[in-house]
Write a structure and sequence with these properties.
Strand content: 35-45%
Shape: elongated
Strand order of the largest sheet: 14-16-19-20-18-17-15
Length: about 400
């Protein structure tokens, strides 16, 4: 038991994980659901109570495995008020189950040929089997007007698996009445298959409108961690600043690679979006988004990508002069790395020239300005607040 517990904790950690225990409608349909066979892995006391000659051990906790080999049926009851509905939470927990009590023979040191009956010849019975069991139950919520009924929280020590919703007058439970509980710690498939398929980090958006994306992962993500990467298929194209909530948790902002709030269209309906959690930003940062434009920071070097705003403004080739009369200075963004034949620069002149002049671009060195006749400038050829285009 301890060996399996340590192996389970190495794979799953210390949070409860459920494999199987799928809830489905019965066939033929009835006012009951089936819970399939499965297992639960849950942190529990090594020995919550004494067992045979083993004393209780509540000092140590291990990841115990509870097993249900057979499917079981849970009865569901419809509310008795017209127009009302009720949510049932199908929940599960681990439990030590002792069985097979028997009166065991004990060694009799005074007469080895005649065994004692039970400990100290008391005739008391002792359990001979301790099993790890899954306890599954249906917890009823409070009936309320249809659409306003709430799902009850799991009982202490339990985890929620599925929600069964039933309305007044219902005579059967169908698959449409059953939904996975948000936060259910269900393993989508075998551990290796889950890793290979990425099923534990991919979700289909469960939101009901643009800009607020709701992602339910299996098993549930209790809280985002710095560097965590997840992906999802959105139902709606964003129209502005947006948020993502995971497994029913807090809705956090989504930002682009420029670490700015989204504008519109960066997330496209039916596309695929990959985001990473940034702890210092307390935001989800888009790494990729199919079908939508990718937000980037403004380029500042020659090999950087330029934003649409930079292209539209012409800031990569246009800038206001920051020099003085006859000594003009242009600092382009991104910076020009070198003068090369044919490079064009547009400058808004701060001061009119009074004679021969120079232009220094990105501190690459002051170069003489010539007019179209290939001679040095004379006074007044560059006008204050005017615009000039130069070609190297």
């Amino acid at each position: 038991m301890i060996a399996i517990a340590k192996l389970a904790s190495a794979m799953f950690g210390s949070s409860t994980i459920v494999n199987g225990l799928t809830v489905t409608a019965q066939s033929p349909a009835a006012m009951a659901v089936n819970v399939s066979s499965g297992e639960i892995y849950e942190l529990a006391n090594l020995e919550a109570t004494a067992y045979s000659s083993l004393a209780a051990d509540v000092t140590h906790s291990v990841m115990k495995q509870g097993i249900s080999l057979n499917a079981q049926s849970l009865t569901i009851t419809a509310p008795g008020t017209v127009g009302y509905s009720i949510n049932y939470l199908i929940q599960a927990t681990y439990q030590d189950t002792d069985s097979d009590a028997a009166t065991l023979p004990y060694y009799n040191s005074s007469n080895p040929s005649q065994a004692w009956s039970g400990p100290n010849n008391s005739g008391s019975q002792q359990y001979t089997t301790r099993s790890g069991a899954v306890i599954v139950s249906a917890k009823a919520g409070v009936a309320a007007t249809t659409g306003s009924q709430a799902t009850p929280s799991p009982d202490s020590g339990y985890v929620g698996l599925y929600v069964v919703t039933v309305a007044y007058g219902a005579a059967t439970i169908t698959s449409g009445n059953i939904a996975q509980y948000i936060g259910a710690p269900l393993l989508p498939a075998g551990l290796l298959q889950t890793i290979q398929s990425g099923a534990s980090t991919y979700a289909v958006d469960a939101g009901t409108g643009a800009n607020a994306y709701k992602l339910n992962f299996t098993p549930a993500i209790s809280a985002p961690l710095d560097g965590m990467v997840v992906s999802f298929k959105p139902n709606y194209t964003n129209t502005g600043a947006s948020t993502i909530s995971v497994s029913g948790g807090t809705a956090y902002p989504v930002v682009g690679c420029a670490q700015s709030a989204l504008q519109a269209g960066e997330i496209t309906a039916e596309g695929r979006v990959q985001v990473i959690w940034s702890g210092n930003l307390s935001s989800w940062v888009i790494l990729s988004a199919s079908g939508g434009p990718l937000q980037i920071a403004a380029g500042t070097k020659g090999n950087h990508a330029a934003t649409l705003a930079q292209v539209q403004s012409g800031s990569s080739s246009y800038i206001a002069d920051t020099g003085t009369a006859n000594t003009y200075v242009a600092t382009l963004i991104p910076a020009l790395s070198a003068y090369s034949d044919g490079v064009k620069v547009r400058v808004k002149i701060a001061n009119a020239n009074t004679g021969a002049s120079t232009l220094n671009v990105n501190a690459l060195g002051a170069k003489t300005i010539y007019g179209a006749a290939h001679v040095a400038l004379q006074a007044g050829e560059l006008v204050a607040n005017g615009y000039a285009e130069f070609e190297y």
